Hints:
The complex is a heterodimer of chains A (about 190) and B (about 100).
Chain A: H1 6-25, H2 29-49, H3 53-77, H4 92-115, H5 127-132, H6 136-144, H7 149-170, H8 181-190
Chain B: H1 8-28, H2 32-56, H3 61-91
Helix pairs in contact in B: 1-2, 2-3
Amino acid sequence: MTAINPIAFYLFAGVALAFSVMTVLRKNPVSSAFSLVMVFFSFAGIYAILGAHLIATLQVLVYAGAIMVLFVFVVMLLNSDSPSFDFRRTPALFRVAAGLVCAALFVLFVRVFKNSPPVLTPGAFTAEAVDAAGGNTRVISELMFSEYVLPFELTSVLLLAAIVGAVALAKRHSVAKPVSKKGVAHVAATR
Amino acid sequence: MSLPPVEPWVVLAFSAAIFFVGLFGLLVRRNLLIILMSIELMLNAVNLTYVTFSHQLSSMAGQMSVFFIITVAAAESAVGLGLVIALYRTLKTVDTDEITLLKD
C-alpha cells in the first residue's frame, strides 16, 4: 500500500463533494447534469491517485462520456421548466427527516470505517508488483481473460439485453388505425 | 506546509459522504431524471469504496468488481432513461407524485 497524496486527494474530494451537493439541490436539470460531470471527473482523479489507472480511464470514457451524453439528451428532450425540478416542493418535514437519517447513517459509517481493524490479509498485488508485471491495465486485462472470463462474457449478454430493452422501451408504438372491427379487436388483444 | 498522507479510512468516509448525498437526493427529489442522477452518484461512491479497499489490501478483485459495476451502471442508465422517455410519452410528466397509474 502506497501513501495517498493529500493535496491532490483533498482537491478532488472537495470538488466532488461540492458538485455532488449541487447535483442534488440545483433546480435547473442542465446544471445538475453538468455538476454530475464534474463529480465524475473528480472521481476519475481519485481513482488515478489510488493507482487504478484503467478504472480512471473507464470512468472518464463511460460515465463522463457515454452516460452523461444520455442524460443531457434526455434533459433536452423533456420539459425542463416543470415544477417537479424544484426540490422545495417536497414537504419540509420530510426533507429534514431525510437529511437527519442520511447524516446519522454517515456518522455511523465513518465510525465503522475509522475504528474497525483491517480484517483481511493484504494480497499479492502491491504497487511494486503491479509495476513489475507491466502496469495496472496489463494486470487487469490478464486477470479479465483468465480468472474473470466467465463474468466478462456474461457482461456481453447483459449489454445485449440492455440494448434490446432500451430500444423496445423507447420505440414509439404505432397508433392502431381502426380499419375494421376485427383489426381493432386484434390490436386490443395484443397490446 | 506538508500535510500527512491520507489514511484509507478518510477516503472511505468521503465515499460514504457522496453515497449519502446521493441517498438524500433520491429521497427528496421528485423528478425521475434527478433521481437517476442520484443513483449514479451512489453507484460511484460504492465504486470508490471498492477501489480504496483494493488499494488498501493490494488486491485486484476490487478493481475487477468496479469494471463490472461500470458496465451494469451503463446498462442501467440506458434502460432507465428509456423508461423515462416512455413514461413522458404516456403521461407527459416525469414527476413521481403524478405517476399514479396503479393507484386509480
